[in-house]
Structure formats: structure tokens, C-alpha cells
Amino acid sequence: MPCASSLPCHVTFSRIEIHHLPQVVDIEQRSFTCPWSLRQFTLELARPYGDSIIMAGEAERQVLGYAFWWVVTDEVEILNVAVHPDFRRRGLGRLLLTELIARAGLNGGRAFFLEVRPSNLAAQALYDSLGFKPAGVRPRYYDDTGEDALLMRLTIE
Ligand SMILES: CC(C)(COP(=O)(O)OP(=O)(O)OC[C@H]1O[C@@H](n2cnc3c(N)ncnc32)[C@H](O)[C@@H]1OP(=O)(O)O)[C@@H](O)C(=O)NCCC(=O)NCCS
User: Fold this and answer.
1) What is the pLDDT of residues 106-153, one digit of tens each?
2) Are 55 and 92 in contact (CB under 8 A)?
3) CA torsion, ordered 66, 71, 74, 78, to nearest 10 deg
């Protein structure tokens, strides 16, 4: 996409490849209390029903964010979404999710699901702004705190 005033120039999207993973792991560790390991990311890249995108800055040198999801029939399970801490609140999270929805939609995805911590108000606000609605609770979903997960759903035509 072209330069926008509050965004880094030349934001590009592509499928995540092994060489992106060191930057992805760095962002992951700075974003989550229970981060995925390099091994988990590597396994996700090999799943036949899995997909992923990297959002990168100019010439793909800097990873700005990433997302992983599964598509099974018309259902999409969003597994992992993060934006680099230095680039948050500039619209990149919304851009990343919009790209994910478009790509998964092209592969037949119609019903999008994700789990989010009740304490993660930033992510909930992002999902809400994209039209995701509460769809239930998964009790004691998170091992580290025993927190429930809020299940959210978006349906597209
Ligand atoms: C959640 C996350 C991806 C949002 O990325 P971002 O690039 O900062 O999001 P955006 O700038 O696109 O924000 C889009 C909307 O989300 C909401 N939002 C984002 N961050 C917010 C915050 N800290 N507080 C309140 N609302 C927030 C706002 O509604 C915002 O719209 P606005 O800026 O017009 O008010 C980012 O904070 C992140 O990577 N967090 C750590 C990892 C994580 O929690 N992932 C989700 C797990 S379920």
C-alpha cells in the first residue's frame, strides 16, 4: 500500500517464511505472557490447512506484524495476531486483520472465530471495530492464569 501519514511506508503482506521467524519470535516474546516458541511457529508453517501472513515495512526488512489461522471448510480459526510494540495504535492491527479476512475469504472462509483474554481490552476493541461479536466463553482456557477465554465470531457473506 502507498504511504499514509501515520503508517510506515510501503507496508506489504506475504505468506510467512522460515527466514521471517526470528523477528516474529521477538515480537511474540514482547507481546504475550505465554509466547509461542520457534518450534511452534515452524510446525504451524507446515500445516496443510494453516495459513499465515507477515506484514512488513519497506523492502520487507522489518516485520511489523503477523497472523496465523486455520481454514477448515468455511470456518476460520484465528490463532495468533500481533503487531510490533513500536508500531501499535497506527491502524496496523486493523490492516492486518482486514488482509487476513480477505485472504481467508478467498479460500472459502465465511465464519471467523478467535479467543481473547477478558483482560485484553486492546484486542477486544480491535475485533469489535471489525464487526466481531461475542459468541461464548471457554472456561479456564489459559493455563498461566486460569482465565476464561472470550470467544468472538465474525460472519461474512
Ligand atoms: C491487539 C493489537 C494487535 C492491536 O494492534 P494495533 O496495531 O495497535 O491496532 P490498531 O492501531 O489497528 O487499532 C485498531 C483499533 O483497536 C482498538 N485498540 C487498539 N489498541 C488499543 C488499546 N491499547 N486500547 C484501546 N483500544 C485499542 C481501537 O479501537 C483501535 O481503533 P482506533 O485507533 O481508531 O481507536 C496489538 O495491541 C498487539 O499486538 N497486542 C499484543 C498481542 C495481542 O494481544 N494479540 C491479540 C491476541 S487475542
Assistant:
1) 999 999 999 999 999 999 999 999 999 999 999 999 999 999 999 999
2) yes
3) -40
User: Taking 80 as the threshold, does the pLDDT of residue 60 lie above it?
Assistant: no
Q: Is the CB of 67 under 6 A from ligand 1?
A: no
Beta carbons of 108 and 132 less than 8 angstroms apart: no
Question: How many Cβ atoms are within 10 Å of 89's Cβ, its own excluded?
Answer: 9
Phi-psi category of residue 73: left, alpha or beta, with phi > 0 → left and psi -120 to 50 → alpha: left
* Closest residue to atom 34 of ligand 1, CA basis: 91
CATH superfamily of 12-155: Gcn5-related N-acetyltransferase (GNAT) (3.40.630.30)
* Ligand 1 pocket test target in 88, 90, 147 with most atoms within 8 Å of CB: 88
Main-chain dihedrals φ then ψ at residue 116, nearest 5 degrees = -140, 145
Query: Cell for 129?
Result: 471495530
141 assigned to active site: no
Is 115 a catalytic site residue?
yes
* In the chain, domain spans: 12-155
| Catalytic residue, candidates 99, 115, 142, 147 | 115
Residue 66's pLDDT is 98
